[in-house]
Amino acid sequence: MCGIIGYTGSVFAASKVVLDGLERLEYRGYDSAGLATIKGSGLLVNRGSGKLRLIRSVLEKGMGSESVAIGHTRWATHGKPTEENAHPHVDNARRIVVVHNGIIENYLDLKGELSAKGHRFDSQTDTEIIAHLLADMENPDFLVSFRQAVLRLEGAYALAVLHVNYPDRIFFARKNCPLIVGHSENEGMFLGSDPAAMLSYTRTVTYLNDLEYGYIDPTSVHLFSLNSGEPLPIQKEVLDWNPVAAEKGGYRHFMLKEIHEQPDVVRNTLGGRLDEARGKVLLPDFQISPEQFSKIDRIVITACGTAYYSGLVGKYVLERLCRIPVDAELASEFRYRDPVINEKTLVIAVSQSGETADTLAAIELARARGATTMAIVNVKGSSLTRRVDGTLYIHAGPEIGVASTKAYLAMVVGFELFALYLSEIRNTLSSDSRREFIHELKLIPGKIEEQLKHKEDVLQVAQKYQNYRNFLYLGRDYNYPTALEGALKLKELSYIHAEGYASGEMKHGPIALLDRDCPVVAILSESSVYEKVLSNIQEARARDCLVIGVLTEGSTHSASVVDDSLITQRTIEVLSPLLNVIPLQLFAYFVSDLKGLDVDQPRNLAKSVTVE
Ligand code: F6R
After folding, report:
1. How far is CA 180 from CA 58, 131, 193, 205, 235, in A?
2. Within 10 A of 185 (CB to CB), how many other CB atoms are there?
C-alpha cells in the first residue's frame, strides 16, 4: 500500500533508479506517482495522476544525472488520486520534500496548528503536514529537527525526506509501515518499501524496525532510536531472491507468470523438508520446540483476504490430521472482538507480505494474551516474522501480481507441511499414513505442470462465460475455501460479482439467485463429499443454471452432469485444494484479459495492505 523508493549515489542517475524502482513497486498502489530530486540548490518535484506508464514522461521532465532522488506510488487514503494529492509534498519554502506510506492520525490537529502559524496547504493529504512540520522545527541540525517532528506524528508511517541543505542524504523514519535500506558495495545506498524495488541493484538489505529513524548517504546508513535518539547497530541480511524473479520473463502478465511458477514454488516450499522414508517433516530452523507445541490445546489461524482462505484450508487439514480444535478468523475481526485465547493457544498468522496491518495487530493481541505465535510468511524479514515466536517461510519468491496466486498455493502447502509435522508431535497419524501423504505431496508439482499444459481448455471456457455478470462458486469440505478463493479471484480481476459458498448452504438462501443468467462453478473433484456436491449441482441445473465443473481427470460421470469442465489431476483428498485452485486462477485470469482489463493492477486494489 503505497510504495517508496530512494537512491543516493553517484554511479547511477538517481531519477532512473527511482523510476525503475517505482515500476517494480507499482503493485503497492497505482493511483498516482511522483518523484523528487535536488537540482542545483533547489528541489525538482514531478507528480502525476494515473498509472506510471501513462505519466512516466511527466515524471522524467527536467531530470538528469542528479545523485539523489525519492519517489512514491500512491494508493489513496486521504484525498482523491489527483496530481495535487500525489506525493512528494513540499513545504512552502520548497526546501524539504516528503514521501510517506501510512496514515497520520493527528494530521488535522497538526494542520490547524501549522495553519495558525501561516503555513499554506495545497493538498487534502495527511502527508503534506509532515513537510510543513519539518519546516517549522527550529533546530539548525536537521537530524534533530527531524526526530522532534517525527515524534509528534501519531499513526503509521514510512517516510523518506530530502532537504536542500543536505544534498546527498535521504532521511527516513518508520512506524508500522515497512521500510528497508539497501546496501551496495560501491554503487550507493537505497531505501524502499520492499526489496523488489532494489533487487536489480542489491540483495543486501537492512530491515528497519518500528520507531527507528536516520539517514542514508552514498556509502552508509546512520540509524537511531526515535525514543532515545541513541545510535543503533546495523544488521544486514542477504536475500535469496533472484532479480529475474521480479521480471515478467516473457509472459504477458506477472499473474500468468506466477501461475506458471507454481510447480517450482511448491518444490521450493517443500525443499529439504520432507523425509519420505521415515515419514517425517523436517523443520530444523523452526524456533518453536516440539515441547512447546505439545502443550497447545487449540489453534487460531488469522489472516486477511486470500491468505485467510489458505488459513481456512489449514483449519480443515490441521483438525483432520492433528485432532486439535482449529478456528480460522479474519484478522480485522479478531483484533477487535476480544477473543478468548491463552497460553495454551497457538495463533498462526498467514501472510504473503508479512506487512498487513490487521494481521500484525491480530498477532500483537495474541502475544499480549500469552499465546504461542507463529507465522506462515513469504517475505523474509518482514514485520510479522519479527513479532512471532516462530516462522515457517513458504519461499514463493517475489509476488508482483496484485491478485495472489503462487503465494496462496505456497501457504496451503505450508499448512499441509505444518499439519504433518504436528501430527507426529501429537501422535495422531501413523508413519505409514505420513509416508503416503509425503509421497503424494511430492507428486503435486508434476501434476500442476500437467494441468498447466491444458490451459487453452480453460481459455475456451472463459471465452464462453466472460459476459455473465454473476457467478456462484460452490465447494465443500476441503474445497469450500477453494470456492471462496476462486470467487475472490474472479471478482477482483474482472469486477464480476461472484459469491463463494459452501455447497450444502445453497438451499439456505443463495439458491434464490439461481437462474440461466447465473452460472455455477462447482468443485466436483473426487472426494468423500462428491455425491453431496453432485446433488447440489442437480438442484442448480433444475433452475436452468449453466454449470462449470472442476472435475478429476477421467471422471466421465461428472462430465455428463456439467455443461463445461475444468480438469484437474487425481490426488488424495487432503491435497485436492492444491490442484483444484489452478484452473480457477486461470479462469479468472482469462476472463479479465478477454475483457481487456488490467490483470496485474485491478482497480482500487493494492498489494500489501499496510493501513487498516
Ligand atoms: C487477493 C489478495 C489479498 C491478500 C490480502 C492479505 O488476491 O492478494 O486478499 O491476500 O491482502 O495480504 P498478505 O498475504 O500480504 O497479508
Report:
1. 27, 21, 6, 7, 11
2. 8
The three-state secondary structure class of 47 is strand
DSSP conformational letter for 550: E
Q: What is the CATH number of domain 258-446?
A: 3.40.50.10490
Domain boundaries, the chain: 3-247, 258-446, 454-594
Reference 171, options 187, 149, 154; nearest CA is 149
Architecture in CATH for domain 454-594: 3-Layer(aba) Sandwich (3.40)
Q: Which helix (H) or strand (E) holds 476?
A: none
User: Is the CB of residue 300 less than 8 Å from the CB of residue 339?
Assistant: yes
The reply to whether domains 3-247 and 258-446 share a CATH topology is: no
Distance 121 CA to ligand 1 centre (A): 35
pTM above 0.70, yes or no: yes
Q: Where are the beta strands (DSSP E) in 439-516?
A: 470-475, 497-502
pLDDT digits (tens, 9 = 90+) for 452-497: 999 999 999 999 999 999 999 999 999 999 999 999 999 999 999 9
Here the cell at position 530 is 462428491
Cα–Cα nearest to 84, from 121, 37, 139, 42 = 121
- Annotation says 2 is catalytic: yes
Q: Among 1, 332, 351, 405, which residue has the most ligand 1 atoms within 8 Å of its CB, making it the best to mutate?
A: 351
Question: Which is it for strands 96-104 and 89-90: parallel, antiparallel or unpaired?
Answer: antiparallel
Q: Are 415 and 303 in contact (CB under 8 A)?
A: no
The yes/no answer on whether domain 3-247 falls in CATH 3.40.50.150 is no
Residues lining ligand 1, Cβ inside 6 A: 304-307, 351-353, 356, 359, 403-404, 492, 608-609
Task: Please give the backbone phi and psi of residue 456, each rounded to the nearest 5 degrees, phi first.
Answer: -60, -30
Task: For ligand 1, atom 7, name the residue with the nearest CA.
Answer: 403
Q: What are the pLDDT digits (tens) for 507-565?
A: 898 888 889 999 999 999 999 999 999 998 888 888 899 999 999 998 877 878 899 99
Could you confirm whether 322 is annotated as catalytic? no
Residue 305 CA: which ligand 1 atom is closest?
A: 9
